[in-house]
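Reviewers of the previous submission asked for a worked example of the structure-prediction workflow described in the proposal, so we include one complete record here. The input consisted solely of the amino acid sequence. No template or homolog information was supplied to the procedure at any stage.
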Amino acid sequence: MPDDTTINRLKRDVIDAGICTHCGTCAGLSGGTLRMEETPAGPLPAAGASAEVDLPPLAYDACPGKGIDYPAAFRAHFGRLPENWLTGPYRQIYVGYACDEAIRRPAASGGVITQTLLYLLQEGLVDGAVVLAPGRPKPWLAQPIIAQTESEIRGASQSVYTPAAVNVILPEMEAFTGRLAYVGLPDQVASLRFLQQAGHPGAQKVDYVLGPYVGTAIYLGAIESYLRANGVDDIGEVTELRYREGEWPGYLKIRTRSGRLLRAKKFYYNYLIPFYITQASLQAVDFTNELTDISVGDAWHPRYEARGQGFSVVVARTERAQALLEKMRADGLLSLEETPVEEAMSMHGHMLDFKKRGAFIRNDWRRKLGKRAPTYGYRPAHVPFSRKLVEGFIVTLFAVGRTRPARRIVEWIPLSLLGPLFNSLRKTWKRLSKPVKRKGLSTATFKVTIGGSPAKEGSRDGK
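From that input alone, the workflow returned the following structure tokens.
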């Protein structure tokens, strides 16, 4: 095959370069000639057994692994660039939750996405919703479905912290009769928006796009490591896996064939992140899912954390999305309280910095090492040297954590010791690094770039 075929370009620039985000868009556009194959580095595109890979150029253009031009996407969908580059475009920000406890309690946070999907379906505003269904085709995996019933939507209310290729469902979306809602991660949403602008028939059936905030994800090897640490050597023994079970913020729950029940508090099993963090987490710059109509994140604030139950930051990014949320509030389906953008950002300041400055630093360092890295059409105008020093420590920590000896050593330490130790270290690190990581963040400025060079007429600040 010529070197300039779409699959060869993707293989060279994204897959072999190690920057695939596992979105599944290429497989979804391949006419069945590509499939997503589970690997230690997440699900990756692989050729089918019986046919030559046939990919349209659109599969490369819409690939978020190489990067998506966010300013162009903002202009196309919102008609403007964001006033605040940390949060992306928005009309109103709330803190809230689903009023129905049967929806709120099983959800990862406040149940807002689940309630919104149910409302859209019940009111006939959509005929189905693209969601990720946990436990399919195996208990430790998840696969996208077009949910058309209340039970299917409720069954998809949990978080999934390992990569899943949502956009492999594009052919089903194209064949679907009716209008759709879509729930995806930032890279999946960015790819969907590109497809919508390109006129893809399945993507154009989507009327409402919702999605969670996304900080870090972990490879499936993290779950295998946790299992080994608890004496379970084969992930095939797992019959049930839930990442945010129980009272908010929830706990990891794993049930095995032998009847064992393994549990770990959310902030305890987060010790796995430094050892199994995905490359996509390190290169992505979109934390708040900026190209959605409605995005939702945990409301990490002492005022809400002390109350438990589950509270969410809810961002309405379009006029129609805001009207939808207000109607649901008026109907008693959602409890929503308007929240200043500054308070909403303060709930996630550490992760906003990790994405909006840290990711750009990490991607720049990749390029200096001769590796490929995504571009996003904008970048910080300035990053203090002190912030780069902090990033050097973070990158070193992750590099050491990824080594086989480090991963094995951590499996020898009981969770009863490791969990509290990691949580204590996490809090200490956030306290010590806060002066540097927060300094100048709220007033950071960003430049729109064209072809990697600053566009003189395109500067916008992040205030």
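Confidence is low (pLDDT under 50) at residues 452-463. We consider this example representative of the routine output the project will generate in years two and three.
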